Amino acid sequence: MTLTYAIGSTNNVEATDVVVGPLEDAARNANLTDYESVYRRSIEDPQGFWAEAAQALHWFEPFHTVLDESNAPFYKWFVGGKTNMAYNALDRHVQTWRKNKVALIWESEDGIVRTYTYWQLYRDVNKFANVLKSLGVRKGDRVAIYTGRCPEQAIAMLACARIGAVHTVVYGGLSTEALRSRIEDAHAKVLVVADGSLLNGKIVKLKEIADQAVDHAPSIETCVVIKRTGHDVDIRNGRDYWWHELMSLPIASARCESEPLDAEDPFFIIYTSGSTGKPKGVVHTLGGYMVDVYTTLKYVLDFKEEDTLFCTSDAGWIVGHSIVLYGPLMHGITTLMYEGAPAYPYPDRWWHLIERHGVTLMFTAPTGVRGLMRYGDAWPKRRDLSTLRLLACAGEPLNPEAWRWFYEVIGQRRCPVIDNWWQTETSRPMISNFASLPMKPGSCAFPVPGVALDIVDEQGQSVPPGVEGALVITRPWPSMLRTIYGDDQRYIDQYWSRYPGKYLTGDAAKRDADGYMWIIGRTDDVIKVSGYRLGTAEVESALVSHPAVAEAAVIGLPHPVRGNAIHAFVLLRAGYSPSEELANELKAHVGKVMGPIAKPETISFPPTLPKTRSGKIMRRVLRAQALGEPLGDLSTMEG
Ligand code: ATP
Ligand code: MG
Fold first, then answer.
1. Is 541 in the pocket of ligand 1 (CB under 6 A)?
2. Span from the CA of 616 to the centroid of ligand 2 (angstroms)
3. How far apart, in whole angstroms, are the C-alpha atoms of residue 137 and residue 632?
4. Substitution site in 296, 364, 424 for ligand 1 pocket (most atoms within 8 Å of beta carbon)
5. Which of 423, 522, 526, 620 to mutate to test the pocket of ligand 1 (most atoms within 8 A of CB)?
6. Does ipTM exceed 0.90?
7. Acetyl-coenzyme A synthetase N-terminal domain: which residues (predicted)?
8. Which DSSP string corresponds to 95-146?
9. What Cα–Cα distance (Å) separates residue 84 from each residue in 55, 245, 253, 557, 627?
10. Tell me, what's the pLDDT at 17?
11. Would you state the pLDDT for residue 373?
12. How far apart are CA 106 and CA 109, in angstroms?
């Protein structure tokens, strides 16, 4: 096993020697031991691959066509099949010994722990499905869900799935206007809302925010209010009902047959993070999502019967749908949901959760890793992390230095780090490394079985290894978005027009000589300095490789001579303070790691970086601020 890191230079194609692993135990026991042959089969015979994959799940009626391409890019998968997500996530298990296995562990920020077995979850989902029916919710109706992370959030989602209602989960804490516009966009009929949720020891007053939104959202007929924090809230007569009261009425019987739904029935609407502009209302349908998420996670997260998964995301984002809820439940494993902030009351909260609940798989985002790395090694070292066997990370490029910390301090060199690339639109990881393969810090490795992709130049021609280009997906996949809600034209324009027949991801990438994929940033963020194109990820990783730096964001601003110049925004690690001397040192450091062309023109030390609530750096906001331009859509920005 090689343990050398060329931190900061690992985005160069030459850096193929920076290889870690594979880790023997993880590789030997992996679900995917022969990546190459499984991948090859999925590409040579995609229909056969997916038809076979679909057999792992329950269908009320079999599909007659795996893929219908007749109206591309409006692809249809598993045509003619009838199925149900709640059935596959719950009923399938309660018919087996898993009936009383723990499905969901919830821990609140103030330390309450609640667990649900598959049977208990099944009963509550049935009950709430009956409640929704009694409120007039029918197949195809939209239900908005605006809560913190709590079991009722999961129950409400699964209850919608059971009766064929389309859920749209809005991240708890987005503003009144963000909630209102999503309700309006989706024409939601019912809103499931919590009174509040805890974050950093304070109550986020969700019901209060929702009241203002619903006042201007006439499609909402009923609000179902979950009592979580217990503070006083306004209950409007005839519109608002308490969850616990509805659930104790006779109409909330614990039997509700799951509706056989068409594979192509809409399953949910979810909005993108808004890193690059106004969030898009992405529509996912049932059958393709179900089969694809099930299959992909078996390989990428290497699910085993005895696993307990802690995914730090929220159902307000796609990761919360696929990794916190539907993926693990379809597989019959235990999922841990944590309500609050990662550093509350102390920066070891996540590590404490792992210790307390014996977590085996952890899934988080680079913002979480970098954020906790700032506090140093002592916090995780106080906790027993020996149950962990695999670490996964997605959402932004994982800088090699953050990778190293995650791998060495959290995973204690025992756990593969699964850097995986995906989007709200894809529903599931599309590029990933696997427990059985060697890792390269900073690279998200290889296309997942079933994913045909390419890196292309302006003309749409494939580029050779080492050359950067636009990342495209060249074939439809089952869990792809079907459209943007109510805006088919935007769907075509946004994803299918730039390179006809190919799905445009909007990300720039390159492949190294070993076939490893490196995401180098958003295409729009690539900075052109004196004719050279520089990805944000490379420059930011070079900055993060300096011991003083915890996080960095870079943007390009017009420069009279060089076309553009790089401007960097840096958050320091504990124990360092801003100074001109340090700024000069960092400039020199980047120059040394990447070459003089990448040397930032300015370095500033703001107290925070503008991020989406899902933790992604919003470079467009930094750019607009610097240029004195309007800031654009800020509905998902961290408050
Ligand atoms: P919007 O589309 O509204 O601008 P967004 O693209 O941030 O927001 P998401 O769908 O949440 O919304 O994020 C997907 C993006 O996140 C990808 O296009 C990519 O830029 C980035 N990303 C996700 N995973 C990784 C990863 N492992 N490495 C690098 N980048 C990643
Ligand atoms: Mg996007």
1. no
2. 11
3. 35
4. 424
5. 423
6. yes
7. 35-89
8. TSGGGGSEEEEEE-TTS-EEEEEHHHHHHHHHHHHHHHHHTT--TT-EEEEE
9. 14, 27, 20, 50, 50
10. 64
11. 94
12. 10
- Residue 287 and residue 84: Cα distance in Å, rounded? 8
> Token pair for residue 400?
């090699």
Centre of ligand 2 to C-alpha 492, Å, is 15
Q: Are 142 and 186 in contact (CB under 8 A)?
A: yes
CB 453 within 8 A of CB 431: yes
Distance between CA 611 and CA 614 in Å, rounded?
A: 8
**Residues β-bridged to residue 146:** 193
Please tell me if the CB atom of residue 276 comes closer than 6 angstroms to any atom of ligand 1: yes
Omega before 73 cis (within 30°)? yes
CA of 599 to the centre of ligand 2 (A): 28
Q: Which two tokens stand for residue 295?
A: 């299959």
Helix (H, G, I), strand (E, B) or coil at 404: helix
Round to whole Å and give the CA distance between 210 and 173.
10
The model's pTM is: 0.96
Buried b (16+ CB within 10 A) or exposed e, 204-213: bbbbbbbbeb
Separation of first and last alpha carbons in the chain? 44
414, 389 Cβ separation under 8 angstroms: yes
For ligand 1, say whether the CB of 420 is within 6 Å of any of its atoms. yes
Q: Cβ(535)–Cβ(572) under 8 Å?
A: no
> What's the CA-to-centroid distance between 493 and ligand 2, angstroms?
14
Which ligand approaches the C-alpha of residue 279 most closely? 1
Sole residue written with tokens 């340090």: 582
Q: Kindly list the averaged pLDDT for each block of 10 residues, start to end, along the chain of length 639.
A: 35 58 94 97 98 98 98 98 99 98 98 98 98 98 98 99 98 94 96 98 98 97 98 97 98 97 98 92 98 98 98 97 98 98 97 98 97 94 98 96 96 98 98 96 97 98 96 98 97 97 97 95 94 93 96 96 96 95 98 94 97 95 96 92
Angle among Cα 617, 613, 300 to the nearest 5 degrees reads: 80
Residue nearest atom 15 of ligand 1, based on CA coordinates: 423
Nearest CA to ligand 1 atom 28: 397
Residue whose pair of structure tokens reads 């992996």 in the numeric block: 30
Q: 169 near 157, Cβ under 8 Å?
A: yes
- Strand 190-194 relative to strand 222-226, pairing: parallel
User: What does the angle CA 476 – CA 478 – CA 482 come to, to the nearest 5 degrees?
Assistant: 75
Q: Residue 272: nearest ligand to its CA?
A: 1
Q: What was the pLDDT predicted at 413?
A: 96
Check pocket membership of 296 for ligand 1, CB cut-off 6 A. Answer: no
For residue 275 and ligand 1, the question of a CB distance below 6 A is answered with yes
From the DSSP assignment, how many helices (H) and strands (E) are in the chain? 21, 32
Contact between 253 and 127 (Cβ < 8 Å): yes
477 lines ligand 1 (CB under 6 A): no
Q: Tokens 């913190």 correspond to what residue?
A: 148
366 ligand 1 Cβ < 6 A: no
| Ordered domains of the chain (ranges, CATH) | 85-266 (3.40.50.12780), 530-627 (3.30.300.30)
